[in-house]
Structure formats: C-alpha cells, structure tokens
C-alpha cells in the first residue's frame, strides 16, 4: 500500500493543516472592524442566546444575534459555553422528559423573569 494513501486514510476530513470549509479563503473580505459592541448589545444578545440555540427566534432576530456573535469574542465565548452546557444536559438526560408540572413551573418563571427584565429597561 502506498504510504501517502495510508496517511490520507488516517487523517479525518477537515483536520489537515490549512484546511478550511468550502467557500472560506482565510482572507478578510470585510471593511475595517466596526466599533466594539456596547454593553447593552451584549446584554441583549446573551439574554436571547438560548432562544437562538433552540431556533426560537425569527429570521431578523436570528441574523442580529449571529452578527453580534460574529463580531464579539466575549459573547461568542459565552455562546460556546452555553452550547456545551446544552449538549451535556441533553446527553445526561437522554430520553427522560420533565414532568408537565415542572415544565409549566419553569416556563412560568421564565416568562415572569422576562417581563421583569423588560420593565427594568
């Protein structure tokens, strides 16, 4: 067997040095960086990150959060942590489903918290 062929078979796709997803050149095509996001923009993005993760946002809000994550490293780091947390919870709970009473209580408290946060603005 050819040594190059063996090396190729052992290297998973996408892990070769210099590999980039299709359509990505590695060169910046954007204009100079815009101003850093404000604390208020970060707060709003982080408040909605789980809705973003769960696909519960409309297209406009989804694009807004994605754009913010693309330009804000601290929020992207928080997003990555939330993504990991969600995956761990899903793996740990597997196919178990919360009782209806618990789900209802949690949803009520979330709604109340959202209302309180919106009134505090």
UniProtKB/TrEMBL annotation:
Residues 42-75 form the Putative zinc-finger domain. Residues 1-39 are annotated as: Disordered. Residues 28-38 have a biased composition (Low complexity). It holds the Pfam family zf-HC2. This is Mycothiol system anti-sigma-R factor. Residues 1-10 have a biased composition (Basic and acidic residues).
């Amino acid at each position: 067997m050819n040594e190059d062929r063996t090396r190729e078979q052992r290297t998973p796709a996408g892990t070769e040095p210099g590999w980039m997803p299709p359509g990505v050149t590695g060169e910046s095509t954007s204009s100079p960086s815009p101003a850093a996001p404000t604390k208020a923009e970060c707060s709003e993005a982080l408040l909605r990150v789980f809705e973003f993760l769960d696909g519960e946002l409309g297209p406009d809000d989804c694009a807004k959060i994605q754009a913010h994550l693309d330009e804000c490293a601290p929020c992207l780091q928080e997003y990555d942590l939330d993504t990991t947390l969600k995956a761990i919870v899903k793996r740990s709970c597997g196919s178990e489903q919360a009782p209806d009473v618990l789900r209802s209580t949690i949803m009520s408290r979330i709604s109340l918290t959202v209302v309180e946060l919106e009134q505090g603005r």
